[in-house]
Amino acid sequence: MTNHSHGKPGYTGIKRVVKATRYSFQGLKAAFQHEAAFRQEIVLLLIATVVSCLINVSTLEHIALIGVVVLVVIVELLNSAIEAIVDRIGSEHHELSGRAKDIGSAAVFVALVFAAFTWFYILVS
Fold this sequence. Notes:
By secondary structure, the chain is mainly alpha-helical. It contains four helices and no strands. The protein has one domain: Helix Hairpins (Orthogonal Bundle). It is 82% helix and 0% strand. The protein is globular.
């Protein structure tokens, strides 16, 4: 079925949800296959989840401890997408390409610092 109400063709309803879910899993698979940082952050997420379950903190603190690591994974996925787009455009050095990659990397760094701060604050207080 075609959806003309938004000016772009595509599926609607449950078929759209199924296809979107399939594309999302393809993206996760591609990230896992091609991005070492993503694989490392998945391991970090698994470790953080286990450690969070072993420490005596409130439910909200458990959610925060795991959530900040999930945030790192999300930001890494976005950074990897930016890098893939930039690499697709061309391998020659361009100031804007470098800036895009650096800003994506900075976003991952900020997410990691936030995660470390959150873990430190909850564990120390």
